[in-house]
């Protein structure tokens, strides 16, 4: 710290070219300032200033020293500012993984809000992730936050519920069910269904299976897909119907009608997860913004 103080004294004298004005700028007496400069010159081993009764000029060695001193002080100031920004949670990097419906319903608003409120945080988004893949990525550090669907049976993760999402039926626009205001599960008996893949451990596959089991209806599954966007695209192509969370309607594809299921029907939960014990300020600032976006949506 003594060296940094000496550097600041030196730069001030070099800029003012006068010990009296430099001392006034530094809010100190002139004799102690002059003594500190001589001590610095003794440590460096060369004269940094040529002194007269009227002014102070830099020696060639002093001019070279001034350039390096300014660079060092600038780096120190930048480091201090960076430390303060990190502590405040206004800078950092995060990767966020989203399940299909959150990709379409929350990601646009979340990315805009983060850019407005926390522009110093670099956020990378990964959409259309299945829950099993999200959990694995959280464990490995591939992502920092996950918008996913519980249950998540992992004590190493902190999971916070965000909202309940109603289930709706996506049907081809020309389908008989598209004329209904609401649809019962029983109305889907004998209808070709498009579902998320069981082989890829989709949470929605289990939700749909339970929904039909509760209604005593055997689902006629014709297509299994990995991504929600593909699922809705196949519905638009007339290949079947699909049960999806209501926010999937944000896709708004031509040729698809979304109809609510008659209550009481199952809903699905959306939650946010991260590795337990993480205390980085920028992660928790991002979590706060995410909670506000969910509340406002």
Order of helix and strand elements from N to C terminus: HHHEEHEHHEHEEEHEHEEEH
CATH C-level label of the largest domain: Alpha Beta
Number of domains: 3
By DSSP, the count of extended strands is 11
Query: Which structural category do the helix and sheet elements fall into?
Result: alpha/beta
Q: What is the 3D form?
A: rod-shaped
Distance between the termini: 51 Å
**Spans with pLDDT under 50 lasting ≥5 residues?**
none
Primary descriptors:
297 residues, alpha/beta, Arc Repressor Mutant, subunit A, D-Maltodextrin-Binding Protein, domain 2, 3 domains, seven-stranded mixed β-sheet, two-stranded antiparallel ribbon, 10 helices, 11 strands, rod-shaped, WH-like_DNA-bd_sf, WH_DNA-bd_sf, transcription, DNA-binding, LysR substrate-binding domain-containing protein
Q: What does this 3D model show about the protein?
A:
This is LysR substrate-binding domain-containing protein. InterPro entries: LysR_HTH_N (IPR000847), LysR_subst-bd (IPR005119), WH-like_DNA-bd_sf (IPR036388), WH_DNA-bd_sf (IPR036390). It comes from Nocardioides humi. By secondary structure, the chain is of the alpha/beta class. It has three domains: 2-88, Winged helix-like DNA-binding domain superfamily/Winged helix DNA-binding domain (Arc Repressor Mutant, subunit A), CATH 1.10.10; 92-162 and 269-296, D-Maltodextrin-Binding Protein, domain 2 (3-Layer(aba) Sandwich), CATH 3.40.190.10; 165-266, 3-Layer(aba) Sandwich (D-Maltodextrin-Binding Protein, domain 2), CATH 3.40.190. 44% of the residues lie in helices and 23% in strands. The chain has helices spanning 2-16, 19-25, 30-44, 60-88, 100-105, 107-117, 131-140, 203-215, 228-236, 281-296; strands spanning 49-51, 56-58, 92-98, 121-126, 145-148, 157-172, 192-196, 220-225, 242-245, 256-260, 267-275. Strands 3, 4, 5, 6, 9, 10 and 11 form a seven-stranded mixed sheet that branches. It has a two-stranded antiparallel sheet with strand order 1-2. Strands 7-8 form a two-stranded parallel sheet. A hairpin with a 4-residue loop joins strand 1 (49-51) and strand 2 (56-58). Helix 1 packs across helix 2 (19-25), helix 1 crosses helix 3 and helix 1 crosses helix 4 (60-88). It is rod-shaped.
